[in-house]
């Protein structure tokens, strides 16, 4: 039972969602304050000019995107965007079984759970389901999705290759970037286990983060006519350009490393744990 009067298996009423949203955002701020000692974080809406990409008639907007896409350094990313945007998430399906966290993700955030270890056919169904959800978000019938297109946490120095889920259906996205600073320990989760990472990050005197919100990017025919390279599919062009825009704001290199490379590296260091992260 998440709140008085709610029965398991039943959707939340509007007033219950409002109360739980307020409580969740308050708890998220307390987690940042008393966990990594994030005394402050800064959010800037940066004025990036998309006219070279979307044409001379483009005008900036910071609202109405179907999906928010961001680089993924640590669990702090999720807590920060909860305070800022309160989106829906696309967590791995195993989280649905976690006590308290699972019901919060499902009922409060209206998350879409993903089985990362599925067959190619199952993964295509996931992409199709995400596209359907993006349509609802773009029309205002649902909260925007929050997706981390790298597919995993990284070391906060480069952007690895993006996965197609957020871009396949060519719906609008709003890129955001997280740039952390801590005096002694890198906030990036990388290949650490969750408990070790939390102990280390909570042992620091303070942590700060500079979050940048870029305008909403909605691809159009002008974009594909002027920026499509060779035989690449439209979603590849879209993904490549958004990744480049994010890398510029972060000051990161764009590496050709993939999600699978992280799993392989972790398997080398911690036999049995690298492959475990591919499944639920």
Q: Describe it for me?
A:
The chain is an alpha/beta fold and 280 residues long. It has one domain (14-90, 117-278). The protein contains nine helices and eight strands. It has helices at residues 14-34, 51-54, 76-84, 101-108, 120-138, 194-201, 221-227, 234-250, 259-269, and strands at 40-45, 67-70, 88-89, 145-147, 158-159, 173-181, 208-213, 253-254. It has a six-stranded mixed sheet. Helix 1 (14-34) packs across helix 3. The chain is globular, with a radius of gyration of 19 Å. One of its GO terms (cellular component) is membrane. It holds the Pfam family Acyltransferase. Keywords: Acyltransferase, Lipid biosynthesis, Lipid metabolism, Membrane, Phospholipid biosynthesis, Phospholipid metabolism, Transferase, Transmembrane, Transmembrane helix. It is found in: Membrane. It comes from Halteria grandinella.
């Amino acid at each position: 039972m998440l709140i008085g009067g709610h029965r398991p298996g039943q959707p939340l009423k509007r007033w219950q969602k409002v109360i739980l949203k307020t409580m969740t955002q308050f708890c998220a701020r307390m987690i940042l304050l008393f966990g990594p000692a994030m005394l402050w974080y800064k959010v800037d809406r940066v004025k990036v000019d998309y006219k070279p990409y979307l044409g001379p008639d483009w005008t900036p907007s910071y609202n109405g995107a179907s999906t928010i896409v961001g680089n993924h350094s640590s669990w702090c990313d999720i807590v920060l965007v909860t305070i800022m945007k309160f989106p829906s998430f696309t967590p791995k399906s195993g989280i649905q079984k976690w006590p308290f966290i699972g019901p919060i993700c499902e009922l409060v955030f209206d998350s879409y759970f993903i089985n990362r270890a599925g067959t190619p056919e199952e993964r295509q169904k996931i992409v199709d389901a995400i596209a359907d959800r993006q349509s609802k978000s773009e029309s205002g019938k649902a909260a925007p999705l929050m997706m981390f297109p790298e597919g995993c946490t990284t070391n906060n120095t480069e952007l690895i290759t993006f996965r197609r889920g957020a871009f396949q259906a060519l719906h609008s996205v709003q890129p955001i970037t997280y740039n952390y600073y801590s005096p002694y320990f890198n906030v990036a989760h990388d290949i650490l286990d969750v408990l070790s990472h939390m102990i280390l990050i909570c042992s620091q005197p303070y942590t700060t983060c500079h979050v940048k919100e870029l305008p909403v990017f909605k691809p159009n025919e002008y974009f594909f006519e002027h920026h499509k390279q060779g035989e690449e599919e439209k979603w590849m062009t879209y993904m490549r350009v958004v990744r480049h825009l994010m890398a510029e704001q972060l000051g990161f290199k764009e590496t050709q490393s993939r999600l699978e490379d992280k799993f392989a590296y972790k398997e080398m260091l911690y036999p049995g744990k690298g492959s475990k992260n591919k499944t639920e």
